[in-house]
Every structure is written in structure tokens, then in C-alpha cells.
Design brief:
The protein has 9 helices and 7 strands. By secondary structure, the chain is α/β, with parallel strands linked by helices. The chain starts with a strand and ends with a helix.
Length: 251
């Protein structure tokens, strides 16, 4: 088998590369930082192809597909993304538009293009790295939550379409809570609760992907949180989230 992972130079994407390599799955690793990808390649015992691209740029997303469409990929992992803390009136518009381009457009384009190819074959997998934020609204992390809502709901809808077709192609949404990655540094904030181990999250996600699980929520804490939100009024959810994000900003 062969897997393509975006955002593979750090965090969950990097951990997924190691986890898949343990299962003797060849890899195509995509990120902006070539040096980091080269270092990962040296440590893996499978075939690794490196592609250095900035997927914020739409033309590079299509370029990535053209570069890999003939590589007989079995697994697509859309992982590249970032967040931005702050109230909507204060956050930088250009940075938010870049987030939308990466967190939504890149996922959307790659999912559509590879799905069409996968439907011609059997037992292919798409794993979209979403977030528990995909089920909520997020004051002070508003655009990030909105992008994750888009991808989570899109993944769920496609999953049902495939189920109705009785297709062997699987699409899943990984929806973790806070994970110990580079997210905080990029987003200019800090999580107020304990972060999950990205290696454990990666292993759990891949295990569940192969078991055809639609929504993958790695920790008991987050499973319970998402369950309880069903019974909490939206206004109270917003208030709680607003104050949680405030703690991340040190306010």
C-alpha cells in the first residue's frame, strides 16, 4: 500500500508517517519544509517520496495531484492546516483567507480528485484531519472552528454517499481535542487543558480508519465533551468556549 500525507513535517502528520511505516506502507510526504521531510525519510524503513509545496496556493494543490495521480495511492491523509486565535475584528484578514485556502480548499480539492480515482479501485481510504471544533462554534478561534465545521460535515456527507453506493472506499474524519503539536505557536495561543500525545492520536486514527469508522474521536475526555454538547444550549456553549479560548490567550 501507499499513503500520501499533507502537512507531514510535524505534529499529527509526522506521527502518522511513522505509524504507517510500521505497517510497511510506502509514503509520499508533503510539506513546505524540505529539511524536516528529509530527516523523517532517513528514519523510515519504507519507500518515501518527498514533495515540497505550499498548499495555501491553489495552483500547488492541483500540482500535487498531477504529481501523484499515477503513483497508485491507496490512502490520502489531508492533514495540513493551522489556526489563529483572536476576536474577529482583530485577526488579520489575509491570514484568515490563507487559512480558508489551506483548511478548506486544499482538503476539498484533494478529496474530490482522489475520490474519483479511488472509486475506480477497491479498498482505498481518505482520512481528513478535522477537529472536535468541527461540531461547535468557536469565539476567539472563530475562522478555524468554521473551517473545521466545513470539512467535518463534508466528510460525513461523502461517507453516507459512499455507504449508499456500498463502496469499499472509506472516508473518515479525525476529530481530536487539543493535541501536543506546533498548533499553538502558529495560532499565537496556548491550550488551557492537557494536550493529547500526537503519536497515540495517530495510531488510534489509523486503527479506526482501517475499521471504517466515520468519526474518529481519540480521547475519552473529548468523547464525553462532544456527547454533553448535545444537551447544552448554543448560547451556553458559546459562553463556555469564549472563556476557554480566553484562557488560551492568557486573558
Amino acid at each position: 500500500m501507499k499513503a500520501l500525507i499533507t502537512g507531514a513535517s510535524s505534529g499529527i502528520g509526522k506521527c502518522m508517517a511513522y505509524e504507517l511505516a510500521k505497517r510497511n506502507i510506502d509514503l509520499i510526504l508533503v510539506a513546505r519544509n524540505k529539511e524536516k521531510l528529509e530527516n523523517i525519510k532517513k528514519e523510515l524503513n519504507v519507500s518515501v517520496k518527498i514533495i515540497t509545496l505550499d498548499l495555501i496556493k491553489e495552483k500547488n494543490v492541483f500540482k500535487l495531484y498531477e504529481l501523484t495521480k499515477d503513483d497508485k495511492i491507496d490512502i490520502l491523509i489531508n492533514n495540513a492546516g493551522f489556526g489563529l486565535f483572536g476576536t474577529f475584528d482583530k485577526t488579520d484578514l489575509n491570514r484568515e483567507l490563507e487559512m480558508i485556502d489551506l483548511n478548506i480548499k486544499a482538503y476539498h480539492i484533494l478529496t474530490k480528485l482522489f475520490l474519483k480515482d479511488f472509486l475506480k479501485r477497491k479498498k482505498s481510504y481518505i482520512l481528513n484531519v478535522c477537529s472536535s471544533a468541527g461540531f461547535m462554534a468557536g469565539p476567539r478561534l472563530n475562522t478555524y472552528y468554521a473551517t473545521k465545521n466545513y470539512i467535518t460535515k463534508l466528510t460525513m456527507a461523502i461517507n453516507e454517499e459512499l455507504r449508499q453506493k456500498r463502496s469499499e472506499v472509506v472516508i473518515c474524519a479525525l476529530c481530536p481535542g487539543p493535541v501536543n503539536t506546533n498548533f499553538n505557536k502558529v495560532a499565537h495561543g496556548e491550550f488551557a487543558i492537557k494536550e493529547a500525545d500526537p503519536h497515540k492520536v495517530a495510531k488510534y486514527a489509523i486503527d479506526k480508519m482501517f475499521k471504517r469508522k466515520m468519526l474518529i474521536v481519540p480521547t475519552l475526555r473529548m468523547k464525553l465533551t462532544l456527547f454533553l454538547t448535545r444537551f447544552i444550549p448554543y448560547r451556553l456553549q458559546l459562553l463556555i468556549t469564549y472563556h476557554i479560548q480566553g484562557k488560551k490567550l492568557g486573558k
